[in-house]
Amino acid sequence: MAKKIAQNICLHILEQGELDKDEMDLMAMAKKSLQNAYAPYSQFAVGAALLLESGEMLSANNQENAAFPVGICAERVLLSYANANYPNQAPLKIALAAKALGSKNYSSISPCGLCRQTINEYELKFNQEIAIYMLNPSGEIFKADNISQLLPFKFNNFK
Ligand code: THU
Fold it and tell me: pTM to 2 decimals?
């Protein structure tokens, strides 16, 4: 039989009431931030909020461009801003919320491949896992304990 390498990955499903105070604040910031998304092309607004090890919280949203590939996801706007301005503060938790513009309901959200690789980069830089909280339309939250749950067999060059 052919040999195989297996990885066991999982997401936790959390009710709102299972979030601690920081996590609730973070999710509230992500929801608020999506209101400032610049998404005239996709009409899909994403908000992200980040908890740094100092306890400080930052937020950002997606920023699109008429030349579509130039647009940047909320997660990468946020993580780049965080590392540009707080280069010595490890990010601990990132919360995500999304909505189609004009809708009153939240949409499902999960980081794209580029954003997964970016989260991985900051886990590597700080040697610190980053937990990812993704709001569902039902109000439940999917939690990945670290980027390995979303990006198994990832590229970790030079490590
Ligand atoms: N987007 C994000 O900001 N984060 C994600 O995790 C997925 C997608 C943005 C990119 C684009 O502006 C819009 O959502 C539609 O894909």
Answer: 0.96
